[in-house]
Design brief:
The chain is an alpha/beta fold. 38% of the residues lie in helices and 19% in strands. A hairpin with a 4-residue loop joins strand 1 and strand 2.
């Protein structure tokens, strides 16, 4: 059974084709800058190619990529693809699991556009394009927010007038659900225990970052909120701040709320503090090799915020079986992992520095005397979407 996974951004598409018999990736493709000077990246059997070609719409780009699958003989016909799984960023309270797409599901995704105005419209473009291209094949929506729908009210409600929750759905939703679910399931496999019996803290750290407290296999709390802007400090996002900063900046700088939102989303975080980059590797180089003080401040703040969130979740859960690092930074930065876990021995967390000296592999890094086991597990959100797609189609 072959499953196509589609992830549409506002001006980009990522596509991955899986053979679910052995969960093997058959092809990866992406198109960036749709509507502008587009660039297609194609990877088939470790052969990589970049093609400069203009695409005006998501459907045009998708039809090109599907054509490449055929011309490169990855598939002999569209009939080989059994189903299409779509990453959808926001499902609000309407969707607590992946669902087969029909008109009522599309209406539900449209209703959630107010919660994700940058993402859901692009997700819908991909869905509509695939329904046009693969006319008889099932399309499945897999929501970033669905995994976190198990959070209790005390975790997801904000301390603002309750009527705003009732009228507008203002609450914590959380994101990176496919990643947190994937690595928690893999942790259960490693520990050889049922996921429902485990308490795990999963740390998805990258340009966008979130930490999730998983209680008895289900999301209990997570750092991102109504939007992905909340929570940890990230590449260009501020994470949690005093909300009074927003009107303060509006008055002092004579700018609009939209402008402040842009600053907090695109000009803050590591980029805003360091003045160097949103890429942690470039900031580490500036701090450690060029003694850039602001770069070091940005790194110190990053470690502080991750440790602060991790500590709060250690307090929330009734005993922790494992802490998992994942995401680009979590998987590939030994320094970040070491600094986050430093001086947590009194809370039962201790890592082995030698075991921790690696990048991008699945390993346990906890020391023998650590009461809580610590793992690095590379995430695979696309494979999780493919698995969910198969599960829904077999219902």
């Amino acid at each position: 059974m072959k499953v196509l996974v589609v992830n549409c951004g506002s001006s980009s598409i990522k596509l991955q084709l899986f053979d679910m018999a052995d969960e093997k990736t058959l092809a990866k493709m992406s198109v960036e800058e749709i509507g502008g000077n587009s660039k297609a990246k194609i990877e088939v059997l470790n052969n990589k190619e970049i093609i400069q070609k203009k695409f005006l719409t998501h459907e045009e780009a998708l039809r090109f990529m599907v054509g490449e699958l055929l011309s490169r003989k990855v598939i002999s016909s569209l009939e080989e693809i059994s189903a299409i799984g779509h990453r959808v960023v926001h499902g609000g309270e309407k969707f607590s699991a992946a669902v087969k797409i029909n008109p009522s599901v599309i209406k539900g995704i449209e209703d959630c556009i107010q919660l994700a105005p940058l993402h859901n419209p692009a997700n819908l473009e991909g869905i509509n394009a695939c329904r046009s291209i693969f006319k008889s094949k099932p399309n499945v929506a897999v929501f970033d927010t669905a995994f976190h729908q198990t959070m209790p009210r005390e975790a997801f409600l904000y301390a603002i007038p309750y009527e705003y929750y009732e009228k507008y759905g203002i609450r914590k939703y959380g994101f990176h659900g496919s990643s947190h679910k994937f690595v928690s399931m893999r942790t259960a496999e490693i520990l050889k225990q049922p996921l429902d019996d485990l308490n795990i803290i999963t740390c998805h750290l990258g340009n966008g970052s979130s930490i999730t407290a998983i209680k008895n296999g289900k999301s209990f709390n997570t750092t991102m909120g109504l939007t992905p802007l909340a929570g940890l400090m990230m590449g260009t996002r501020s994470g949690d701040i005093d909300p009074a900063i927003i009107p303060f900046l509006m008055k002092k700088e004579n700018i609009s709320a939209d402008k402040v939102e842009e600053i907090l989303n695109k000009k803050s975080g590591l980029l805003g503090l360091s003045g160097v980059s949103s890429d942690c590797r470039e900031i580490e180089d500036a701090a450690w090799n060029h003694k850039n003080e602001r770069a070091q401040i940005a790194l110190d703040k990053l470690y502080f915020r991750i440790k602060e969130a991790l500590g709060s979740y250690l307090a929330l859960l009734p005993g922790i079986d494992a802490i998992v690092f994942t995401g680009g930074l979590g998987e590939r930065s030994p320094e970040t992992r070491e600094m986050v876990c430093k001086n947590l021995e009194h809370l039962g967390v201790s890592i082995d520095k030698e075991k921790n000296k690696f990048k991008g592999e699945e390993r346990e890094i906890s020391s023998p005397n650590s009461k809580i086991r610590v793992f690095v597990i590379p995430t695979n959100e696309e494979l999780m979407i493919a698995r969910e797609t198969i599960f829904v189609c077999k219902k």
